[in-house]
Design a protein that fits this description.
heterotetramer, A: alpha+beta, Butyryl-Coa Dehydrogenase, subunit A, domain 1, Butyryl-CoA Dehydrogenase, subunit A, domain 2, Butyryl-CoA Dehydrogenase, subunit A, domain 3, seven-stranded mixed sheet, two-stranded antiparallel ribbon, about 50% helix, about 15% strand, B: alpha+beta, 3 domains, four-stranded mixed sheet, globular
Chain lengths: ~375, ~400, ~375, ~400
């Protein structure tokens, strides 16, 4: 057991931290948010140059061969800086699905282009009635001659507005909530039959509602056997979101402690009040517990035991959701009015943390999933 | 001990309910129910309907339009108004500057300001908070220097709610720079159209524009706009802040919101099951309902005590109302956001009403997260919940 | 609406408070606990003399004609003093059931004897498998010639060890968890076929496990139609227990505040620490919310609308359970070691509060009951 | 970063597990699992088995029986011991007085006391707390007056755990009455059989007898029983209190308790449904499991940091372990009591084991409430959770 970073990991961390420190200040971020789709092409090129866009891919595919730990390092730094670029959508979700489900040829074609920053992907999966149920897919894929066509409605597609390629889940067979029979398909975003309604989200990331009407599609892997890949990639993505949340919480906690030490009222720093000290201690405890669970999810995210992996990831998502809500609410409360203004970073961290809870299942959803699976300490010691 | 309302009280309640639900436009009340922001016109319309009925300023002196109601009547009026999603008469007018002018103002000031105040002919805003003052209000630095029959005002106010609509501002200013803290402060009424006043919006994290900074640069204010005596402004501010503490729990608002949340949860499905049938969600709802019922009873106990209370001296138990009332309001916004699920994420709030695009996701979802973000304020403003705990510790528990 | 006490109620409160102040100090209570069955016959006689034992009964039956409000006043004072006598078992449960289900003749015979302090009753109802389900009754009653005989196992019978008469619920017809078909019966505690195993409880009250084997029984009211009376009487008893809990919490909170003001550490009263002040404020808020709900339950306990009554009582029991747990735990924590000793009253208040949660359904049970019934604010305004 | 244990670490863990589950009597471990109190003999038996294996005092200097393990090995040893429900070696001996004697004692003291300490030939208790001292330990008043080659000790200690079993007590005493607070305190070893010592039991609300008052009335103590220098006792006490902070989380104990609770919940029914299948109960359990897993990871992080830590200087992060560890332990007792339901109420704890009456209600129920009551102590003793928060605020957050 070793919590130390390897030399390579330390290098990775240092370079990502330096990049966001230099190029992703709060004011700079405001400018990036105003660009089309709400993110910076220039930063995207920077990530490519640093190798971040190919981080989890094999070296053959222009990647870095990194695992969940490397992703954690990057996502934590991204969380502190509130990065807006489509990293999760393209690298973790899109790239992850190509890795997990695509043919060798598809991988060889697409992954290098992701790593090079030449393509932006989005995962069009969630449907309105599904809420957080990954297997609830009504969108249908049918074969028309040799070609596949997809019809259905996808929602809250992360960066679905600026992606050039959509990875779309669609049902090839089975009932609406069956895990079996779900296929993954590649659909060019500009293809006929694809209608996108893009929007900014609460956290300034972007999303889209996407209608598909007989849209032409290429199967990613074997049609109808996509669910295992979806489950695996979503679990990994959740672990990455946990790391992002830890970064955001750490930044928010540090800002709060700093504010308490510098903000004066009644002639002294408000941090002199024991009540506020203890409350920031409770925030710290919540943060450290969250950090521990993000590490746990990271270790387990690469597990091939789908049940064990899912339980660990659910547990982490619950902890992150609870800690983030607590840390976020307390941070705003301890800041007072200033924490509620758009001009100050704390409120933005709070909003992103709030929205991470809503991504791929909130704390209640994952608590139910974990409890139904028998909890964490089920086996004999 | 009889916790039931009397026949007369019930009749009064029904009268309130009838009036609010028939005389105030339904579309306007529906906007309130949904958590939409109201336009200035909508506030004005509502308050004038209430004022025409004599119900805009029931707690004012009868001579100036008050109703001489019992505490229970005042409670019922508020509760029914809130439950019917009627926007309350503008607090800055009817609960803040109005009572101060009525109590401490000159006859000329009363005649000039009070009727317009009640009818929302003048929209007032509050110039108390300053950058750096926070809960330590008395540390304010805005100055007013007497020159002849004028005051020259310089300084900055902040968190000024709806200053963008305001015709007048009631301002705490430092008139004696040598005096310490609470002393040397005066209470000044200032026309917002006076040259030298600049209003700068503060955008809040929900994307809304409720609060502002207000800058005063050599603003000339006629000396006749001083309320009461010079350097006694702190007393008037305390009087103002001590008024009207039971409405602060906003029990009626929360009741309306919970009922709406239940309707939404009966509609919104996960898989094929309405969320209201999800045991965990239902129990979380029931938990808030219990807290709210308890708070309603606590509020009624405070109301009952008001008969014996010294006028203008706030019941420290009202700090409980503030703490629990804000927690419950926040919790309801949290549950509403949880109900919206993944659709809490898109930011598709429609500020200019003109759009006819269909909503993204469930129709309530666009307001769910903004309202959650916005409602963090209710445990901060009006004396933060930490300040309320200090009050209870000192005034009730005797620490 | 009027929260003021009537002159009569004020008189009642003053006399009960005076009695317990004079006769029920913590040291006196210790002596009473050492008497047979853990309670004082002398105090019992005092209650009778003051009219407390007939409080809810009609004047014709030697009673006072009091309602739920009068019971609340007495129970709150009893809660502060941690009264040990079988008041709930005899007056509220036993007497309540005779009132609610008994024939005029039975009422005329039994109620005056309760009011006079001549008899002690207990309600033998709970069965092990039932947990908190009032309708889960396996104990069977059968007619043997003209006489009724009961066979079954009853548990956690409050004051079942010293009662002379047991009110026993037994099934006349229907399935084990049907509300219909449950009868109420009077069984002399010393009758043949009755075996009792008495014990002290965590809160120094006493209980018994009771086995009935063809025990002779007299129907209380119409056999098989007892459930409505049980539900009504248990709801009223819960409202009374809520008031008792409020008394105990108020006493515990007052002791804690007093301790914080007098206990010195690091050269000053520990109550100078803002953190401890705020925590005692949160206890106070929990107490006052509980007091409000106890009043609400009291008002609703006399309602004939069984559904409305049950929802109000469940809501109150949840609030009391949550407040009592919070106030109790915080009181012990703020007291430190002394709060954990048998020699100090605080720990006993904490224990009684803990056990009130376990009587007739804990907070989780009642939350589920309330949620299933649609909550509190279900109807349109 | 590799959060998996190495092959060597796993082998060591298995060795621990095998030893604890085969060499320590199962009946004794079952008593621990059930929360029963152990007899003095049972503690002694266990510790001697461990000591025979060289595992009673692994963290002591190797010269006195220590093992020179890595922090990870120490962690695994503790965790496996706790999970196997093995009672830990008596903390007063192995974690408190032993390390102090080994570090600061004379050679004669080491030879005389350490082997007997490790083997539990002498049972030690701790004479630190006094009535009125609480968290302000340095305010102690028990005096030791040097007269010739003896100290005459007068005063009173309290909360003295298991003093009823003790052969020796290590006592903080005031040797310089004129010095202020922390100064003038000495660390004295006292034979409990010395005339003038009286032990009075304190009964706690769970009905148990774990703690005592200890009175000293002109107790004569040979001067050779002074540890280190006179008036330097506070340093030794700080050293003692700073030792052994990771075991404080008691993660292994909580793991064992959660597994047992799940087994019980699978057996206990409401109606005809096992409580483990009740969604609310199951989710409450899962919530504690998550907290516990997080704490386990936090503990491993602290363990990993220990390699870099300065010896004897406690990691302030261990305060998190104390706070969360105690909260989790308490929460598990709460859930166990909730599981017992109405049968948490009877007090039928069997102190003298002799009885053959069947249990009242479920067999675990008799201990459920007493354990809940008893475990309130874990957030009070060893530096209350309030003190731990002060430590974090100061040492980590820099307030």
């Amino acid at each position: 057991m070793d919590f130390d970073l390897t030399d390579e990991q330390r290098l990775l961390r240092d370079s990502v931290e330096r990049l966001v420190a230099d190029r992703y200040g709060f004011e700079q971020r405001r400018k990036y948010a105003a660009e089309p789709g709400g993110w910076s092409r220039e930063m995207w090129a920077q990530y490519a140059e640093l190798g971040l866009l190919g981080l989890p891919f094999a070296e053959d595919h222009g990647g870095f061969g990194g695992g969940a730990a490397e992703t954690m390092i990057v996502m934590e730094a991204f969380g502190r800086a509130l990065i807006l670029e489509p990293y999760v959508a393209t690298v973790l979700l899109g790239g992850g699905l190509v890795q997990a489900a695509g043919s060798a040829a598809q991988q060889a074609e697409i992954l290098p282009r992701i790593a090079g920053g030449e393509t932006v992907l989005a995962f069009a999966h969630t449907e309105r009635q599904a809420r957080y149920d990954l297997a609830d897919v009504a969108t249908a894929a049918r074969q028309d001659g040799g070609a596949w066509r997809i019809t259905g409605e996808k929602g809250v597609v992360l960066h679905g507005d600026t992606a050039d390629t959509l990875v779309v889940s669609a049902r090839v067979s089975g009932g609406r909530r069956d895990a079996a029979g779900i296929g993954l398909f590649l659909v060019p975003a500009e293809a006929s039959g694809v209608t996108r309604r893009g929007y900014p989200a609460q956290d300034l990331l972007h999303g889209a509602e996407i209608s598909l009407h007989d849209a032409p599609a290429t199967p990613l892997g074997t049609p109808g056997e996509g669910f295992a890949a979806i489950a695996r990639v979503v679990d990994r993505t959740i672990a990455a979101l946990c790391a992002e949340a830890v970064g955001a919480m750490a930044e928010l906690h540090a800002m709060t402690v700093d504010y308490l030490k510098t903000r004066k009222q009644f002639g002294r720093p408000i941090g002199d009040f024991q009540v506020l000290q203890h409350r920031s201690v409770d925030m710290f405890t919540a943060l450290e517990q969250a950090r521990s669970m993000a590490m746990y999810a990271t270790v387990m995210a690469d597990s091939d035991d789908a049940d064990e992996r899912a339980r660990a990831v659910s547990a982490a998502k619950v902890q992150i959701g609870r800690s983030a809500r607590f840390v976020g609410q307390e941070a705003i409360q301890l800041h007072g009015g200033i924490g509620m203004t758009m001009e100050y970073k704390a409120g933005h961290l709070f909003k992103r943390l709030t929205m991470i809870d809503k991504a791929y299942g909130d704390a209640d959803h994952h608590l139910a999933r974990l409890a139904a699976a028998g909890g964490l300490f089920s086996e004999a010691a | 001990m009889d916790l039931n309302f009397t026949e007369e009280e019930l009749a009064f309640r029904d009268e309130c309910r009838r009036f609010f639900t028939t005389e105030i436009p339904a579309a306007l009340r529906e906007k309130v129910a949904q958590g939409d922001h109201l336009s200035k016109d909508e506030y004005v319309t509502t308050q004038r309907i209430l004022n025409a009925r004599g119900w805009a300023v029931p707690h004012w002196p009868v001579a100036w339009g008050g109703q001489d109601w019992t505490p229970v009547q005042t409670y019922l009026y508020q509760d029914e108004m809130q439950q019917a999603n009627v926007p309350a008469p503008l607090a800055f007018n009817v609960s803040m500057v109005g009572p101060v002018i009525a109590q401490f103002g000159s006859e000329a000031q009363k005649k000039r300001f009070l009727p317009r105040c009640a009818n929302l002919d003048d929209w007032w805003c509050q110039g108390f908070s300053e950058p750096g003052s926070g809960s330590d209000l008395a540390s304010l630095r805005t100055t007013a220097k007497r020159v002849g029959d004028k005051y020259i005002v310089n300084g900055q106010k902040t968190w000024t709610t709806l200053a963008q609509h305001a015709d007048w501002i009631f301002n705490l200013v430092r008139t004696d720079p040598t005096a310490k803290k609470q002393e040397g402060i005066s209470f000044l009424l200032i026309d917002m159209k006076t040259p030298g006043i600049k209003v700068r919006p503060i955008q809040t994290i929900d994307g809304g524009h409720e609060v502002n900074e207000v800058f005063f640069d050599d603003v000339e204010v006629p000396a006749e706009n001083l309320v009461g005596e010079e350097n006694k402004g702190w007393d008037y501010a305390k009087f103002l802040l001590g008024n009207e503490r039971t409405g602060i729990a906003r029990v009626g608002v929360s009741k309306a919101r919970i009922r709406r949340l239940k309707q939404l949860a009966a509609r919104e499905v996960a898989g094929d099951v309405p969320l209201i049938e999800d045991r965990r969600f239902r129990e979380k709802l029931a938990e808030v309902e219990i807290e709210l019922k308890a708070l309603e009873m606590t509020q009624l106990r405070v109301v009952a005590d008001e008969r014996r209370a010294v006028k203008g001296k706030p019941n420290p138990a009202s700090s409980i109302l503030k703490i629990k009332g804000s927690e419950i309001q926040q919790r309801i916004t949290e549950l509403t956001m949880d109900l919206a699920g993944p659709y809490a994420w898109p930011y598709t709030r429609d500020e200019d009403e003109g759009s006819n695009e269909p909503p993204v996701g469930p129709d309530f979802a666009a307001e769910a997260a903004p309202m959650y973000f916005n409602y963090r304020k209710v445990s901060i403003y009006g004396g933060s919940n930490e300040i309320q705990r200090n009050i209870i510790a000192k005034a009730i528990l005797g620490f």
